[in-house]
Amino acid sequence: MNILYFLVTIFISVKYIYSQNNTSEESEECIYLNKLLNKESSYNCCRNEKITCLNSHITRIKIYFQSQSYCGSIPFELGNLSNLEFLYFYGDNIIGPIPPELGKLTSLVYLFIQGKYINGTIPTELGNLSKLENLSLPNNIFKGSIPSSLWNLTKLKELVLSNNKLSGFIPPELGNLLNLESLKIQDNNFSGNIPPELGNLSNLKILEINGNNFNGTIPPELGNLSNLEILDLSGNNLTGSIPPELGKLTKLKSLYLSRNNLSGSIPKEIKKLNTKLYISNNPLLETESNNNSVISILIIIALFLILATGITIAYKKTKKKIVEEEISSRNKNKISFGSKNHPPVCIT
Ligand SMILES: *[C@@H]1O[C@H](CO)[C@@H](O)[C@H](O)[C@H]1NC(C)=O
Ligand SMILES: *[C@@H]1O[C@H](CO)[C@@H](O)[C@H](O)[C@H]1NC(C)=O
Ligand SMILES: *[C@@H]1O[C@H](CO)[C@@H](O)[C@H](O)[C@H]1NC(C)=O
Ligand SMILES: *[C@@H]1O[C@H](CO)[C@@H](O)[C@H](O)[C@H]1NC(C)=O
Ligand SMILES: *[C@@H]1O[C@H](CO)[C@@H](O)[C@H](O)[C@H]1NC(C)=O
Ligand SMILES: *[C@@H]1O[C@H](CO)[C@@H](O)[C@H](O)[C@H]1NC(C)=O
Ligand SMILES: *[C@@H]1O[C@H](CO)[C@@H](O)[C@H](O)[C@H]1NC(C)=O
Ligand SMILES: *[C@@H]1O[C@H](CO)[C@@H](O)[C@H](O)[C@H]1NC(C)=O
Ligand SMILES: *[C@@H]1O[C@H](CO)[C@@H](O)[C@H](O)[C@H]1NC(C)=O
Ligand SMILES: *[C@@H]1O[C@H](CO)[C@@H](O)[C@H](O)[C@H]1NC(C)=O
Ligand SMILES: *[C@@H]1O[C@H](CO)[C@@H](O)[C@H](O)[C@H]1NC(C)=O
Ligand SMILES: *[C@@H]1O[C@H](CO)[C@@H](O)[C@H](O)[C@H]1NC(C)=O
After folding, report:
1. Greatest CA span in the chain, whole angstroms?
2. Which of 133, 135, 208, 292 could be stapled to 184 by a disulfide with Cβ–Cβ 3.0 to 4.6 Å?
3. Comparing 47-56, 201-210, 226-235, 247-256, which segment has the lowest mean pLDDT?
4. Residue among 217, 237, 282, 284 to mutate when testing ligand 12 (max atoms within 8 A of CB)
5. Ligand 5 pocket member 104 (CB < 6 A)
6. C-alpha distance from residue 245 to each of 182, 234, 263, 266 (Å)
7. Of the residues 235, 266, 286, the one at which a domain ends
8. Which residue numbers delimit the Disease resistance R13L4/SHOC-2-like LRR domain (predicted)?
9. 144 CA distance to ligand 4 centroid (A)?
10. Residue 65: per-residue pLDDT
11. Whose CA is nearest to atom 3 of ligand 8?
């Protein structure tokens, strides 16, 4: 009994020790965050569920502002959190640009910023965040082009810039981002050609560049993206024919090509894929439905011809029979052709 009591006590103590997480930790860095969190300056932000601290440093911030809880700009002092690895920042009442000071957060692995009044340009300084794996800046009102420094972020797995007002060309340097799994830059105003170097990004699973102003042809190199699952090129100004190389994309689940100026017909290699294909609103494209309607018209004509021939033959046969019957009845007295039941009998 004593031993059991002893074991239970040890079990409870060990459990208690392990459940002591480091929420009691404090960080001087809280001074940069407490205004944002709407707390007094002495508040220990490491206790807040939105913040994670380690060894007296803030390492994670996940802030989702309800409509009226914070109104202001993204504080540039966040750039002082040199151990920050994860920053998620969402707020519809946040106004103004991304402070260039965020380029000092060189431990950052994940950066998400979204707010319908966040504007300005994407700071060149973000190109210094060399550990960055996920960069998501969707649904803001950023203008200008993607700073060329971003093509140095070779650890990037996910780049999301969708639904902004970005413009300019996508340079061949995009091909540097060999770890990219997801590229979503849809619903902006990017123009120029789709760089063939995109075909080098062999880890890519999602490529969404729809709703821009890309022109020129679809590069056949996209057929090298053997892991691609979603390819959305719709709503651009793409011309030329659909490259049959896209038929190599055996993992593709959806292929969106609608609302372009594509021509030619759909390559048989693509029809063979087990892929949902969206091709509407390409006036010059010979689509399957056109082919189908041509085929169905042909079938209808053929059926009509067969029917007509059938009727004609049947009519002729009937006429012949009637004529024969008339002859037979006229000759009844002389010759009986008889019927199936009776063998012909010659009347002498
Ligand atoms: C830390 O402890 C608090 C209360 O003791 C608990 O609510 C919280 O979930 C714990 N956090 C982790 C990461 O264990
Ligand atoms: C608490 O933090 C210290 C370092 O500050 C660390 O060594 C220790 O493992 C942490 N304890 C828990 C339960 O996470
Ligand atoms: C925090 O950052 C600002 C601007 O980047 C800088 O002026 C200030 O000296 C920094 N403060 C500390 C304590 O590092
Ligand atoms: C960003 O939005 C604010 C508020 O609407 C405006 O005052 C400011 O001029 C805008 N900045 C840019 C660079 O567009
Ligand atoms: C950060 O980037 C800016 C502009 O791209 C550059 O001028 C600056 O030297 C970089 N800072 C560091 C510390 O690398
Ligand atoms: C990319 O990184 C290299 C080496 O770190 C540097 O020399 C170059 O200036 C960077 N390019 C841009 C556009 O920031
Ligand atoms: C980062 O991006 C990768 C690739 O798209 C994705 O699998 C992963 O879930 C993302 N991480 C986070 C924390 O969102
Ligand atoms: C998009 O960019 C083109 C130039 O490539 C420009 O003429 C057009 O006005 C832009 N559209 C919008 C909505 O900004
Ligand atoms: C990337 O693709 C381009 C054009 O498709 C090709 O010329 C180049 O050699 C490729 N670069 C690498 C590093 O594979
Ligand atoms: C694509 O658009 C650019 C301007 O944005 C133009 O210079 C170029 O000639 C166009 N290319 C094609 C093939 O239409
Ligand atoms: C990529 O595709 C192009 C054109 O379809 C082809 O010539 C090239 O050899 C491919 N490159 C690789 C690395 O598969
Ligand atoms: C698409 O490109 C053609 C020329 O290639 C041009 O005449 C037309 O204005 C472009 N359409 C749009 C919406 O940019």
Report:
1. 137
2. 208
3. 47-56
4. 237
5. no
6. 21, 18, 16, 12
7. 286
8. 102-211
9. 14
10. 80
11. 189
Q: Which of 144, 168, 192 is the last residue of a domain?
A: 168
Shared domain check, 207 and 105: no
CA 80 to ligand 3 center in whole angstroms: 6
**Domain with 320 in it:** 291-348
Torsion of CA 231, 237, 242, 246, to 10 degrees: -20
Domain identity same for 64 and 122: yes
Q: Residues 175, 179, 181, 182: is their CA dihedral positive or negative?
A: negative
Q: What is the pTM of this model?
A: 0.79
Residue 193 lies inside a defined structural domain of this protein: no
Displacement of CA 232 from its chain's centroid (Å): 6
Contact of 101 with 123, CB cutoff 8 Å: no
CATH of the domain at 51: 3.80.10.10
Residue linked to tokens 């085929």: 295
Same domain, 330 and 279: no
**What is the pLDDT at residue 37?**
85
Q: Whose CA is nearest to atom 3 of ligand 9?
A: 197
Say yes or no: 118 and 96 in one domain: yes
Q: What digits encode the pLDDT tens for the residues 46-97?
A: 989 999 999 999 999 999 887 666 778 899 999 999 999 999 999 888 899 9
Q: Indicate which residue's Cα is closest to atom 6 of ligand 8.
A: 189
Q: Considering the domain boundaries, does residue 309 fall inside one?
A: yes
